[in-house]
C-alpha cells in the first residue's frame, strides 16, 4: 500500500489561541507515495474536508463560515440537550472528548472512482481523530463531486455515498448520519477495506482489484 494521507489544519492567522473553542477547518489529501513507481500525473487519489467543533458550546454567528446549516442545526440541538452534550436518542455514542467531526466534502479523483478509495480515505482519516473527538456526522450532500452537475447523477452519487457511510459504521438519524468514533466498527471497517484492497492485488493503488461499483 503506497497511499499516504496528509492531514493539515487551516486557520486564520489571528487565531493564536490553540485552545480556542472555535470550529477547526481540516483538510486531508490522499496521494500515492512520491517514491513509488506510479505515474506522477495520476498520484492524487482524493480530498476530504472536515470541521472539528466543540460539543456543548453555543454556536456563534461566525461559525456559519465553517459549518453548513445542517451541521449547525445538529450542534444547536446538542447544545440544547440536557447537560449540553448529546440528545437522549444518541445515548449509544461512547463517552469521549466533547468534540465532533463534521464531514463537509469528500471527492475522489476521477481516475480513482469505483475502487473503494473514498471509503478507505474516509475511514482512515476519521481514525486519526479518535483521540480528540467523540463522534462524526455527515450528510449525503458531502459526496457530490464538483464535476457532477446533473440532478440524476447527483442523486445516484448521494445514494452511493449513503451506502459508503453505512459501510464505515455511520447510523442514520433523519437526514444526518452519525458515527461513534470509539465504536470498534470504525476500525473493523477500515481494516476490512485495507485487507480487501491488498487481497485483490494492488486494490486502491489502481493496479488491480475488483473495487466498488459506487463512484465515491
Descriptive account of the structure:
By secondary structure, this protein is α+β, with helices and mostly antiparallel strands. The protein has one domain: Aminopeptidase (3-Layer(aba) Sandwich). The chain is 26% helix and 23% strand. It has four helices and seven strands, in the order E-E-E-H-E-H-E-H-E-E-H. The chain has helices at 69-80, 117-127, 151-168, 184-199; strands at 3-10, 24-32, 44-54, 99-108, 135-138, 171-173, 176-180. A seven-stranded mixed beta sheet has the order 1-2-3-4-5-7-6. A hairpin with a 2-residue loop joins strand 6 and strand 7 (176-180). Helix 2 (117-127) packs across helix 4 (184-199). The longest helix is centred in the C-terminal third of the chain and has 18 residues, at 151-168. It is globular. The protein starts with a strand and ends in a 17-residue tail after the last helix. The model is unreliable at 201-216 (pLDDT under 50).
Features:
single chain; 216 residues; alpha+beta; Aminopeptidase; 7 strands; 23% strand; globular
Furnish the topology, listing elements before pairings.
Blueprint: E1 3-10, E2 24-32, E3 44-54, H1 69-80, E4 99-108, H2 117-127, E5 135-138, H3 151-168, E6 171-173, E7 176-180, H4 184-199
Parallel strand pairs: 4-5
Antiparallel strand pairs: 1-2, 2-3, 3-4, 5-7, 6-7
Helix pairs in contact: 2-3, 2-4
Amino acid at each position: 500500500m503506497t497511499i499516504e494521507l496528509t492531514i493539515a489544519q487551516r486557520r486564520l492567522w489571528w487565531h493564536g489561541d490553540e485552545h480556542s473553542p472555535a470550529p477547526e477547518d481540516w483538510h486531508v489529501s490522499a496521494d500515492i507515495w512520491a517514491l513509488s513507481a506510479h505515474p506522477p500525473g495520476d498520484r492524487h487519489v482524493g480530498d476530504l474536508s472536515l470541521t472539528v467543533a466543540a460539543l456543548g458550546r453555543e454556536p456563534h454567528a461566525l461559525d456559519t463560515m465553517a459549518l453548513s446549516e445542517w451541521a449547525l442545526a445538529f450542534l444547536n440541538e446538542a447544545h440544547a440537550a440536557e447537560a449540553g452534550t448529546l440528545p437522549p436518542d444518541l445515548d449509544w455514542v461512547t463517552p469521549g472528548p466533547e468534540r465532533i467531526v463534521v464531514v463537509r466534502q469528500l471527492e475522489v479523483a476521477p481516475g480513482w472512482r469505483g475502487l473503494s478509495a473514498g471509503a478507505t480515505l474516509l475511514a482512515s482519516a476519521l481514525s486519526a481523530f479518535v483521540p480528540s473527538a467523540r463522534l462524526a456526522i455527515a450528510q449525503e450532500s458531502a459526496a457530490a463531486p464538483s464535476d457532477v452537475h446533473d440532478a440524476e447523477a447527483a442523486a445516484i452519487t448521494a445514494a452511493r455515498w449513503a451506502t459508503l457511510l453505512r459501510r464505515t459504521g455511520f447510523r442514520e438519524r433523519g437526514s444526518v448520519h452519525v458515527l461513534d468514533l470509539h465504536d470498534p466498527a470504525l476500525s473493523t471497517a477500515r481494516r476490512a477495506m485495507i485487507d480487501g484492497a491488498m487481497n485483490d492485488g494492488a486494490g486502491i493503488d489502481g493496479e488491480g482489484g475488483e473495487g466498488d461499483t459506487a463512484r465515491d
